[in-house]
Amino acid sequence: MNIVVFGAGGFIGGWICEYLAIDKDVELVACVRSWASAVRLARRGLKISRADIEDESSYSALIAGADAVINASVPEPDKEPQAVLHLYKACAAAGVKKFIQFSSIAVYGDQTGVIDESQELQPTNEYGRAKAEAERLLIASSVANTQIVILRP
To answer: Cα–Cα distance between 85 and 142 in angstroms, integer?
Structure first.
């Protein structure tokens, strides 16, 4: 299985890459926005590419032939929704079967008590609003050949 991970230089993306690298059946490409964030991954001997979800030309060749794309990147909030949407559309056009988007519990805002996916999104800050808008755009743009999975850690 060919998997491309965006945001691999971050905490969550890095752990995802380390976990996936254990599986010999996974062909992994770890994408970082800057080489400075690749040190941890380089020690593991992973295939690393420089790619930014805000620049389609930096990733179009990387997603060609991928079975799944995992987006754990965190662009600036004012750019995230459109960047995520463009990445998803590029994945759909490239025939990627699964698109996994890391969102955040911040989309629920200050709600308390038991919270599950049926709760209304009520983000209270710029970060949460960007994540919620990215989710909304993804769901509205969903196509049959590229499944969307949204995770809210």
So the answer is: 10
Q: Could you tell me if 66 and 4 are in contact, meaning their C-beta atoms sit under 8 angstroms apart?
A: yes
Cβ neighbour number for residue 120 with a 10 Å cutoff: 8
Structure tokens at 137: 């755009």
Task: Dump the DSSP string for the chain.
Answer: -EEEEETTTSHHHHHHHHHHHH-TT-EEEEEESSGGGGHHHHTTT--EEE--TT-GGGTHHHHTT-SEEEE-----TTTHHHHHHHHHHHHHHHT-SEEEEE--GGGGTT--SS--TTSPP---SHHHHHHHHHHHHHHHT-BTTBEEEEE--
Amino acid residing at 92: A
Residue 113 CA to residue 131 CA, distance in Å, equals 21
Each residue of 56-114: pLDDT tens digit?
A: 999 999 999 999 999 999 999 999 999 999 999 999 999 999 999 999 999 999 999 99
The residue assigned the tokens 């999975």 is 149
* Tens-place pLDDT, residues 107-138: 999 999 999 999 999 999 999 999 999 999 99
